């Protein structure tokens, strides 16, 4: 009887299902059932077949509910593939020529803020990439149009003028003059003679970002334009390796570096980490850590990159090779510094595994690579003027044979520096000193973290040896830094000012971080930490920080560490005055001197927090810490 009941129940169920399937109108089955050519019962939100299969990635979607998710994804893929084909064949006569969705000047309507349009009138025009006049885009299509077009030539010039003077603060390592000249060529977006679309769109984004930050009017319109530029930059950067641009790898690294700094500056840490990790992957994948490697088994030519592939041809000249060298060290330094700044491992973990394999020689400043081309550029008035400017700033321009000899090879560059082994090359350029300071900061923070972790006795013995060798190395580096890159010889108008300020601050911060586990118990560590903090404040006193438009957002993180040292010392001085602590734990500094130094850092951070949400957040947190300490 039980069997009969089961059969009857099964038969009834089957009949109901059959009736539902047979009554379902043709063409009304869900997408999965149509694709698999099986019967669909039409149940919603999921039909019976989709419920039973429950395969990962399956979605039960009906055509009568509008465009399905799969259809939308397919449309996006088709649109991106079409865009990639357009970029790969920019001169194809059959390709669609797009008009500018941004602004139309000289009698044409404009969707740009009036102040931007007015600013471009004073700029000498060059040939525009716009094909024809058109009405301003509607608000619904504005963002989509921003993906597919670049601004007209006069606006491009304005954006470059906004970004390039501050480009080094964002990690720009390419030759500025070459980049600017190629960016302004009257050629379509994606042409090989111009920078890759990923890099151009990212630079336009940063140019608009700086315009929006400095604008007193049209702030809402500027912000909307910046969002459109960001969307376009992310699209192009995501597809940079799919293009056929000859510099897609180098320009892809530069784009990722710029985006990471942009996001860090905005306090969007996760996105900043993502793009910095992408830059690291490209840098190591391209072999930039092995440029001019002297290790056996790595093929290399005398004066070109060690490995050339169809994706990465050999550099055309010393300037291009210098761009690749600087690309590596810029990426490496950013990983070192931001790992410490945000207290989270970044790609420095990857670099740590490559530490003994970094053979690339120390970087030079770009004008030093340009010196290599003297025989070819001696008639170039603009280049000669650039050299005179650098000499006026006190930057040493060394003869070629002293800087980049034909047989120069590198081997374990970072390890040799940490082991204080002499180098056979010049290593005192602005970029080299910055890279070294980042190594010292990262190393100091790593050692301090291990001390806090209460390692095993045998490991602690090795750790103490590391500490005792690293501490004087930092001191010696700082002494050398005062000699070769003194702040007094670097005016705020110098393009190197920001890097020099950052390098000095990194060196002081390395001492602060290294001694941080011992400041509460060891008088020497507390004294060295306090002197390092005072040194950072003295840097700020040497210059008019109000005359500086932009600073590296990393400085906010470093200044926060300086503030913590000063706040702790103020608390100690108060404790001694109140009789809560013995005089031996006091400080030679008076409380009012310490407070004055602290307020100097607060005031400096306040100036730049207006345009950097990250610095604004850090300032608010450290001020809150100080207020809590005064109430205790």
From TrEMBL:
The lineage of its organism: Eukaryota, Fungi, Dikarya, Basidiomycota, Agaricomycotina. One of its GO terms (molecular function) is DNA-binding transcription factor activity, RNA polymerase II-specific. Keywords: Coiled coil, Metal-binding, Nucleus, Transcription, Transcription regulation. This is Zn(2)-C6 fungal-type domain-containing protein. Residues 63-90 form a coiled coil. GO terms for cellular component: nucleus. Residues 7-27 have a biased composition (Low complexity). SMART domains: GAL4. Residues 29-62 form the Zn(2)-C6 fungal-type domain. It comes from Tetrapyrgos nigripes. Residues 1-27, 126-147 are annotated as: Disordered. The keyword Zinc does not apply. The keyword Metal-binding applies. Pfam families: Zn_clus (PF00172).
């Amino acid at each position: 009887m039980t069997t009969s009941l089961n059969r009857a129940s099964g038969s009834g169920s089957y009949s109901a299902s059959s009736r539902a399937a047979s009554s379902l109108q043709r063409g009304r089955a869900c997408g999965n059932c149509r694709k698999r050519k099986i019967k669909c019962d039409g149940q919603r939100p999921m039909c019976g077949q989709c419920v039973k299969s429950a395969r990962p990635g399956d979605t039960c979607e009906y055509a009568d509910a509008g465009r399905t998710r799969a259809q939308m994804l397919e449309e996006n893929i088709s649109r991106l593939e079409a865009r990639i084909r357009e970029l790969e064949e920019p001169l194809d006569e059959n390709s669609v020529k797009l008009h500018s969705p941004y602004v139309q000047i000289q009698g044409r309507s404009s969707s740009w803020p009036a102040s931007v349009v007015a600013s471009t009138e004073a700029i000498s025009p060059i040939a525009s990439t716009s094909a024809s006049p058109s009405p301003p885009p509607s608000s619904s299509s504005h963002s989509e149009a921003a993906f597919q077009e670049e601004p007209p030539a006069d606006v491009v010039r304005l954006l470059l003028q906004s970004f390039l003077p501050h480009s080094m603060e964002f990690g720009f390592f390419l030759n500025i003059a070459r980049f600017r000249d190629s960016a302004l060529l009257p050629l379509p977006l994606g042409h090989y003679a111009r920078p890759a679309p990923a890099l151009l769109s990212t630079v336009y984004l940063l140019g608009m970002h700086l315009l929006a930050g400095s604008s007193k009017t049209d702030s809402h319109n500027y912000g909307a334009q910046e969002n459109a530029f960001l969307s376009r930059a992310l699209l192009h950067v995501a597809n940079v390796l799919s293009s056929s641009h000859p510099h897609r790898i180098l320009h892809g690294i530069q784009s990722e570096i710029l985006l990471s700094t942009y996001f860090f500056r905005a306090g969007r840490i996760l996105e900043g980490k993502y793009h910095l990790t992408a830059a690291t992957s490209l840098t190591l994948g391209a072999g930039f850590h092995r440029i001019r490697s002297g290790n056996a088994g790595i093929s290399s030519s005398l004066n070109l990159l060690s490995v050339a592939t169809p994706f990465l041809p050999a550099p055309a000249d010393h300037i291009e090779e210098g761009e690749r060298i600087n690309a590596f060290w810029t990426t490496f330094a950013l990983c070192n510094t931001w790992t410490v700044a945000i207290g989270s491992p970044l790609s420095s973990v990857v670099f740590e595994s490559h530490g003994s394999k970094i053979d690339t020689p120390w970087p030079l400043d770009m004008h030093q690579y340009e010196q290599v081309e003297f025989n070819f550029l001696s008639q170039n008035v603009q280049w000669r003027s650039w050299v005179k400017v650098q000499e006026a700033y006190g930057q040493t321009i060394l003869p070629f044979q002293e800087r980049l000899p034909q047989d120069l090879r590198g081997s374990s560059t970072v390890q040799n520096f940490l082991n204080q082994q002499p180098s056979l090359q010049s290593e005192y350029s602005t970029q080299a000193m910055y890279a070294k300071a980042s190594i010292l900061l990262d190393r100091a923070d790593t050692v301090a973290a291990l001390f806090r972790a209460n390692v095993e006795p045998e490991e602690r013995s090795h750790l103490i040896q590391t500490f005792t060798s690293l501490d004087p190395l930092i001191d010696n580096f700082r002494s050398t830094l005062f000699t070769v890159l003194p702040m007094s010889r670097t005016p705020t108008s110098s393009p190197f000012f920001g890097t020099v300020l950052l390098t000095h601050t990194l060196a002081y911060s390395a001492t602060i971080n290294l001694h941080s586990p011992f400041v509460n118990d060891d008088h020497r560590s507390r004294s060295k930490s306090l002197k390092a903090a005072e040194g950072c404040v003295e840097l700020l006193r040497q210059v008019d920080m109000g005359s500086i438009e932009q600073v590296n957002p990393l400085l906010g993180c470093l200044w926060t560490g300086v503030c913590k040292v000063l706040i702790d010392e103020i608390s100690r001085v108060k404790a001694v005055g109140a009789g809560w602590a013995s005089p031996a734990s006091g400080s030679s500094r008076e409380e009012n001197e310490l407070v004055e130094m602290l307020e100097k850092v607060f005031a400096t951070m306040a100036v730049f927090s207006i345009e950097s949400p990250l610095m604004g957040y850090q300032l608010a947190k450290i001020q809150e810490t100080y207020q809590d300490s005064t109430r205790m």
